[in-house]
Amino acid sequence: MPGATVRETPLDYGDAPAEYDAVRRRAGVIDRSDHGLVEATGRDRATFLHALLSNEIKALTPGQGCAATLLDVHGKVQVTLLVWLFEDRIVLVTPPGMAATTHEQLDKYLFAEKVVLEDVSGAHGLLLLAGPEAPALVSRLAGAAPASAPWSSVAARLDGVAVRLVRGGGDTGEAEVWLMTPADGTARVWDAVVAAGARPVGQAAVETLRIEAGTPRFGRDVDGSVLLPEIPFDALVSQTKGCYPGQEVVVRIRDRGHVNRHLRGLVFDGADVPEAGAEVRADAAAIGRVTSATRSPALGRAVGLAFVRRQHAAPGTRVEVQSGAQTLEATVSDLPFAR
Description:
Strand 14 (285-296) and strand 15 form a beta hairpin. By secondary structure, this protein is α+β, with helices and mostly antiparallel strands. It has seven helices and 17 strands. The longest helix has 10 residues, at 16-25. The protein starts with 15 loop residues before the first helix and ends in a 6-residue tail after the last strand. The strands form three sheets. Strands 8-9-10-7-1-11 form a six-stranded mixed sheet. The chain has a six-stranded antiparallel β-barrel with strand order 12-15-14-13-16-17. Helices cover 19% and strands 33% of the residues.
């Protein structure tokens, strides 16, 4: 695997289709050390984050977690986060390159609260085991397993290295376990899970897996121009908690309005993959754009994620996608794609 100081996963490890197949049928291991980590400590950490993030934090107990977003006052997504509660701290997992920005955005809200925020990205490694056999493989190696609820976690040791095992949320469409390691122990843990049967998986297969699963990627499918209700967001929001930045907009849209576009799936008639940014058209008019696309081994054709206007967002709607000189035919689909 890349050394502990290398933060970028390779495109593949020599055979992207076999890597994809390993996750779908057995177990694969993905280096997620390019993701950022921000720690919150201090007695007010849960209350502080609860007031800022879109999901429930205060009611969680150590060993639990959630996915969440930090919004601006207009309800637009500033960052998507994984929130893991440990006994002595809360760990925020950020998209690649977003740890420093997230730290800065949160820090500006700190006044008298007893909270310390620290970017600890370089101190830890992150691995993701995914596939039907992933939970059993981790349990066999570590002698422990997190609870089945997404983002549940437990401390353990794997091949002599102290790790935190965290149940994944299914971004690949398969069972998942994250392993948070000390930076100097990441390579050892990687070697142990590979020796136990997990196949190294590169970015090419990961992209196909996550698009098939309908998982939006921050920086590609979601950015600061996107309203939270424009994307699938049920797992990112508590509908019963108190105020947080952007909540008024989210609730107003939910109760009295609508958004003008939605992130939807596109299933293409053939295997040609459109480029990101390709224009989606209906009735000779532009109605949206493709954000991500791949050839799906599960469906035997190209699939993609795209923003489309509300009037054309119903599953089954036929559209055209203009990708360079090609005009591709596609059907709007709910997410995740049927497998």
